[in-house]
């Protein structure tokens, strides 16, 4: 068995009149991510972590935001396709650990649904999916509620 670690990070600007999707879950809020896709910052960072672990480049390379095919796309589809890409290299995800940096709203009530959604797509156990959320104590662009940042590490393995 061989193990690989990957890291991913994504940031989206928060603007009024857009939905806020994180981890495949729609979170009621007056602002959402400005994006070509549905703006699911968590899933984008997760795709980058998985691709990174397999040294397969990044999400922009596989799903370019200049391609009309990806306009408004459900990021869960991108995650599914990313899983196919790493599986094509004989990798399987082992576990993921996610940190969401967001000032408001409170994310805690949505974490169980995010974990369940991600575990189902990645076909890994619920206890292999960790999602944590933190504010930045009102500091920086996250603290000013101008954006959301997400960091992900993952482990993948070959059988
Ligand atoms: Mg993104």
What are the main properties of this structure?
159 residues, alpha+beta, 60s Ribosomal Protein L30, Chain: A, two-stranded antiparallel ribbon, 5 helices, 7 strands, binds magnesium ion
Q: How many structural domains does the protein architecture include?
A: 1
Number of separate strands: 7
Order of helices and strands: EEEEHHHEHEHE
Percent in strands: 25-35%
Reported CATH architecture: 2-Layer Sandwich
* End-to-end distance: 5 Å
Looking at CATH, the homologous superfamily is 2-C-methyl-D-erythritol 2,4-cyclodiphosphate synthase
Bound molecules: magnesium ion
The rough form would be described as: globular
Radius of gyration from the CA trace? Answer: 15 Å
User: Helix coverage percent of residues?
Assistant: 25-40%
Looking at the structure, the CATH topology is 60s Ribosomal Protein L30, Chain: A
- Low-pLDDT stretches are none
Query: Mind summarizing the main beta sheet?
Result: 5 strands, mixed
Strand arrangement, major sheet: 4-1-7-5-6
Rounded average pLDDT: 96
Number of helices: 5
Broad structural category: alpha+beta
CATH class wording? Alpha Beta
């Amino acid at each position: 068995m061989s193990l690989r670690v990957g890291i991913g990070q994504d940031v989206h600007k928060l603007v009024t009149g857009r939905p806020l999707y994180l981890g495949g879950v729609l979170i009621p809020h007056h602002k959402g991510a400005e994006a070509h896709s549905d703006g699911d910052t968590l899933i984008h960072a997760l795709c980058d972590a998985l691709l990174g672990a397999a040294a397969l480049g990044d999400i922009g390379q596989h799903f370019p935001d200049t391609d009309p095919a990806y306009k408004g796309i459900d990021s869960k589809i991108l995650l599914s396709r990313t899983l196919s890409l790493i599986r094509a290299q004989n990798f399987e995800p082992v576990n993921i650990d996610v940190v969401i940096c967001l000032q408001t709203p409170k994310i805690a009530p949505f974490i169980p649904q995010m974990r369940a959604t991600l575990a189902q797509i990645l076909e890994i156990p619920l206890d292999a999916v960790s999602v944590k959320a933190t504010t930045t104590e009102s500091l920086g662009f996250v603290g000013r509620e101008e954006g959301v940042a997400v960091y992900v590490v993952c482990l993948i393995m070959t059988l």
